[in-house]
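Complex 391.
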Amino acid sequence: MAAKRLTILGSTGSIGQNTLDLVRRAGEGAFDIVALTAHSNANQLAEQALEFGAKFVALASEENAGILKTLLRDSNVEIGVGPDALVEAGKRSADFVMASIIGSAGLEPTLAAIEQGIHVGLANKECLVCAGELVMTAVAQSGSTLLPIDSEHNAIFQVLDQKQPESVKRLILTASGGPFLDRTPAEMYNITVSDALNHPIWSMGAKITIDSASMMNKGLELIEASHLFGRKSGEIDVIIHPQSIIHSMVEYVDGSYLAQLGSPDMRTPIAYALAYPARMSAPVPKLDLTQTGGLTFFEPDLEQFPALKLAREALNTGGAATNILNAANEVAVAAFLDKKIGFLDIASIAEKTLDKLGRANLAQSDLASVLAIDEQARITATESIQGLSRS
Ligand code: NAD
Ligand code: MG
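Predicted structure with magnesium ion bound:
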């Protein structure tokens, strides 16, 4: 079989590195690397390009372009710099693109990949949160297949009968609940960056780890699921399942529940997408149900995790609300990681930004309006953060 031509948008991140781990293990001849991209880590990007023989690399930030050029000067790797180069990476002819940039920065490169009409592994959930209609329209027009990488959505994709949508009653997203399930409101107030970065189950990039701690991640996933599977908010439930063994479920009208189980290791959904519709082996720990102990489930506490409630409200509002929520959350999480605001301020900044801009009922009909609203929400969220630090 011919090698699969693969591009990874965001190859230096957690999902990107896990994808390359599978490529490495698949051995010579399984994959040909078309393009790799990174934000600013020129050293890691150059190392990956040389190890995997990438044809093209794109670095978003201009700052380290000189380092990248020096490191690759004796190679044949073509180099692009700046946001346009990332879109170029998404456009380069491939069989599969892994969309694993974090945040709405990944929207345009991911759209470029979708427009190729190929298989796209979607880890970058923020694309669907900020521009769900636009992305799903592009998928329908190009004939691209979106293969969800998020473990919950990948689970649902595996057990969902897409041919008989009327047979499906509900989607049930499971959530590990993050590290703060047992905290009282007073204890939530004093959470530090290192507390929040210490996820009990999953090892992931910093932004999604903070989102998991606030449960904004589950809120973003609720919105993601709604677009991916064409379901209304009322048809999608969230339940806490701290062991993260059942990755999500589908409830059918006849009372059947189909679930996908596995060890919590992102290489399973990544392998599923890379090999789809076939399967490939992944070096994940065996799931031994005799050793896992009890599996527990309970309702999320929306007072303790207001971000989840906010995300559902934004989904119900529709239009630009989820875009505003996403941008404000990105700004607030960055400020928390920079120790400029407290943990509980993240959801309150998102709420304030929605209050300020949501009522303006901003229309978002095309890419330009999505990007303009994203920008406006970032400015508004930044002003709220400055207001907090002054008070
Ligand atoms: P990460 O922070 O580890 O990596 C992000 C990647 O995007 C890096 O390659 C980085 O260089 C690049 N990047 C960051 N900012 C950029 C910008 N402004 N412009 C261009 N490139 C930029 O993130 P991650 O944990 O790998 O997550 C990637 C995506 O996958 C996110 O949307 C996340 O929600 C989703 N996801 C991740 C996991 C996981 O296990 N890590 C699980 C489920 C979903
Ligand atoms: Mg997930």
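The chain has a mean pLDDT of 96.
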